[in-house]
């Protein structure tokens, strides 16, 4: 068949009419894609929040005795310049107990009420007592034998300069149904952290699934009734955060659990040097590339 100019024109017109119908559907027309995009938006909103990880601006390990804090450089705990009075007060630390004593004339609040002297409950077992001065909040954390004061600043540079988190393209291949094998009774597994501590944590069981032709296994821990996975894969240190990433999942049902790696997210340590993140146990190093979820954060 010989194509003349009129035939070519007709063919081009047909293509123009057909192409819009074969264009990939936008997120609004793809419920799964829309749900993942909504999840990412909510995730970034939490990071940007006044008390989110981007506001983390300091971590100070307490020494036994008096630990003075304020913006004056001679303090033991130096707060950001211009953020608070030169001398805010002192944390008196003895035998694993921290008592805050506020300097005269300085306003410090706890749960919105002024406080002058108070023993502070740490995050172990928590919830911690959070004291506030101007745009700063401070609270105690316990890691192993260490007791520290964590500082959050609504005006932190990290929060102001945050430009969003990059993610891999959404791919349903990485939404897998895994078989969940319970430990009966719960098994204690070793979870290291970036401080070099190792914590023995109860694990309810492990998830087994196949990805890229390889059998993969992840030990779980629990977090507020849900499953929590700390994992590393072959993208770690390349496209994704070197130490690994986190993944949440609903409790198992009928021996199955859904692992949606499109919701894999960076630990707080990817955004701030003042976090004390857990690291993946050796058995949670996956022999596959998980090209889904959050990529490494550059700042």
How would you describe what is shown here?
This protein has 299 residues and is mostly beta strands. Helices cover 13% and strands 37% of the residues. The protein has three helices and 17 strands. Strands 1-11-10-9-6-7 form a six-stranded antiparallel β-sheet, with no helix packed on it. A hairpin with a 2-residue loop joins strand 6 (109-110) and strand 7. The N and C termini lie far apart (61 Å). Residues 1-25 have low confidence and may be disordered.
Write a compact overview of the structure shown.
With 299 residues, the protein is mainly beta.
Question: What structural keywords apply?
Answer:
17 strands; six-stranded antiparallel β-sheet; globular; mainly beta
How would the blueprint of this fold be written?
Blueprint: H1 5-22, H2 31-48, E1 56-61, E2 65-70, E3 77-78, E4 89-94, E5 97-102, E6 109-110, E7 113-114, E8 117-120, E9 130-133, E10 136-143, E11 146-153, H3 157-160, E12 175-192, E13 198-211, E14 214-223, E15 226-231, E16 245-249, E17 256-260
Give the total of beta strands: 17
Tally of alpha and pi helices: 3
Q: Between the first and last Cα atoms, what is the distance in angstroms?
A: 61 Å
Oligomer: single chain
Low-confidence runs (pLDDT<50, min 5 residues)? Answer: 1-25
Main sheet overview = 6 strands, antiparallel
Overall average pLDDT: 91
What would you report as the Rg, rounded to the nearest angstrom? 25 Å
| Element string (H = helix, E = strand) | HHEEEEEEEEEEEHEEEEEE
Could you tell me the strand content as a percent range?
35-45%
Secondary-structure class: mainly beta
Question: For the largest beta sheet, what order do the strands appear in spatially?
Answer: 1-11-10-9-6-7
Helix content: 10-25%
């Amino acid at each position: 068949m010989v194509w003349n100019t009129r035939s070519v024109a007709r063919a081009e017109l047909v293509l123009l009419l057909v192409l819009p119908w074969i264009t990939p559907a936008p997120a609004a027309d793809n419920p799964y894609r829309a749900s993942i995009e909504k999840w990412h938006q909510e995730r970034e909103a939490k990071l940007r929040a006044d008390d989110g990880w981007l506001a983390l601006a300091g971590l100070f390990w307490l020494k036994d005795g008096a630990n003075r804090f304020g913006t004056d450089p001679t303090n033991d705990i130096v707060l950001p310049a211009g953020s608070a009075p030169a001398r805010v007060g002192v944390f008196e630390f003895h035998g694993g107990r921290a008592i805050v004593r506020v300097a005269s004339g300085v306003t410090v609040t706890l749960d919105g009420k002024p406080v002058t002297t108070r023993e502070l409950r740490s995050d172990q077992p928590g919830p911690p007592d959070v004291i506030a001065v101007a745009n700063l909040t401070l609270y105690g954390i316990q890691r192993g034998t260490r007791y520290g004061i964590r500082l959050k600043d609504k005006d932190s540079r990290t929060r102001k300069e945050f430009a969003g988190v990059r993610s891999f393209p959404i791919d349903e291949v990485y939404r897998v149904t895994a078989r969940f094998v319970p430990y009966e009774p719960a098994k204690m597994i070793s979870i290291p952290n970036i401080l070099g501590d190792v914590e023995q944590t109860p694990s309810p069981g492990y998830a087994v699934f196949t990805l890229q032709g390889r059998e993969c296994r992840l030990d779980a821990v629990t977090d507020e009734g849900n499953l929590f996975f700390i994992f590393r894969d072959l993208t770690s240190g390349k496209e994704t955060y070197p130490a690994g990433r986190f993944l949440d999942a609903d409790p198992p049902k009928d021996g199955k659990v859904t692992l949606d790696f499109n919701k894999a997210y960076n630990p707080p340590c990817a955004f701030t040097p003042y976090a004390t993140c857990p690291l993946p146990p050796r058995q949670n190093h996956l022999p596959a590339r998980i090209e889904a979820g959050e990529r490494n954060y550059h700042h």
